[in-house]
Amino acid sequence: MAVRARRGRLNGLGFLEHGGLDRVQFVDLPEPVPGPGEVRVRIKAASFNHLDLFTLEGIPGVDISRPHVLGSDGAGVVDRLGPGSDAPTEGSRVLLNPGLWDGSCEACRKGEESLCRNYRILGEHTQGTATDLVVVPERNVHPIPERLTFEQASAAPLVFQTAWRALATVARLVPGESCAIIGAGGGVSTAAVQVARRLGARVVVATRSEEKAAQVRRQGGAEALVFGPEAPLERVLWGWSEKKGVDVIFDSVGQPTVGRSLLATARSGRIVVVGATAGPKVEIDLRTLFWRQASLRGSTMAGAAEFRAVLAELDRGTLRPVVDSIFPFQQGRDALARLADPRLFGKVVLTLP
């Protein structure tokens, strides 16, 4: 893919028409100018999520302007402050919170920003981070913890805030409980393992891949089980829990696993669903749901306080971004293709010149 540049404009990695990876190209965007209360960041590294593939394909009900730039996560340096913005200072190293909220609705006033009626995500509803310059509200710009590189910082925001809210706030996971992470290798699952351990749980990762199970064990912090036709998910989790059931199940897979996850829950167990990478429609046995007094909850992104909690953990080193691979900007299509590679383990990062 050749990178094109024109005077007064900048390049972004995105698309003109929805479709598959063949639609990905470098696009020209006007240079963004920060308005009141906004900050312009020169991106040094951006990272991709499965959300980028869904956005590329086209998400029903989400209308976007085109050309559209992909990427929800980004890290770089403050380039320019808009009127009324005074922090952080120009030239400082920052990462972006990809969640955007209006700050005025009832949910926002209660500190539940991810429930904002006008909630949006960088790269999904707006232009993304896989470009040279990005403008965001000042409240979305945060200092990078000293221990992190630009590449590591770009790999952290979306997945760790998603895992933190889902497990700490929605599932209310507490020390001593058991927690199963369904699926291995994706950025959100590698983040969820760390968050669950940080909250004091006994953690297991359930995957269809022997290779990924071995990677989970090498990473440490969690046991790993392999499930499949001969060893159904509910059976391996039931055995792992010594036939007590699992207290909290974190599921980002969707259609093939949520119904089976329910069969493996403990009494008063909680399933929290944060994605549907393998399909959005599921069938569940309601008798299991009410007899075990279990709950099935959805969760997405996080509020401002939860994001700050994640940053504090990153600063202390109790949470660490897992990076699968780093690609130069010119190989952006290859970076996106890596998301669908069964060998993926962690985040895919794009470095910008």
Care to give the gist of this entry?
By secondary structure, the protein is of the alpha/beta class. It has two domains: 179 residues, Medium-chain alcohol dehydrogenases, catalytic domain (Quinone Oxidoreductase, Chain A, domain 1); 139 residues, Rossmann fold, CATH 3.40.50.720. The chain is 26% helix and 27% strand.
CATH architecture of the largest domain: Alpha-Beta Complex
Cα distance spanning the termini: 15 Å
User: What is the averaged pLDDT score?
Assistant: 95
Q: What is the radius of gyration?
A: 20 Å
In DSSP terms (H or I, runs of 4 or more residues), the helix count works out at: 11
Give the H and E element order. EEEHEEEEHEEEHHEHEHEHEHEHEHEHE
In CATH's first tier, which class of the largest domain applies? Alpha Beta
CATH superfamily label of the largest domain:
Medium-chain alcohol dehydrogenases, catalytic domain
- The quaternary organization reads as single chain
Under CATH, the topology of the largest domain can be stated as: Quinone Oxidoreductase, Chain A, domain 1
The gross shape turns out to be globular
Number of separate structural domains:
2
Strand content: 25-35%
Low-confidence stretches: 2-8
Residues in helix, %: 25-40%
Main β-sheet, in a few words? 7 strands, mixed
Going by helix content, strand content and strand pairing, the class is alpha/beta
Number of strands: 18
Question: How would you characterize the overall build of this protein?
Answer:
With 353 residues, this protein is α/β, with parallel strands linked by helices. It folds into two domains: 9-156 and 321-351, Medium-chain alcohol dehydrogenases, catalytic domain (Quinone Oxidoreductase, Chain A, domain 1, Alpha-Beta Complex); 160-298, NAD(P)-binding Rossmann-like Domain (Rossmann fold, 3-Layer(aba) Sandwich), CATH 3.40.50. The protein has eleven helices and 18 strands. Strands 3, 5, 6, 9, 10, 17 and 18 form a seven-stranded mixed sheet that branches. A six-stranded parallel sheet has the order 13-12-11-14-15-16, with helices on both faces. Strand 1 (9-15) and strand 2 (24-30) form a beta hairpin. Helix 4 crosses helix 5 (187-198). The longest helix has 14 residues, at 157-170. The chain is globular. The two termini are 15 Å apart. The model is unreliable at 2-8 (pLDDT under 50).
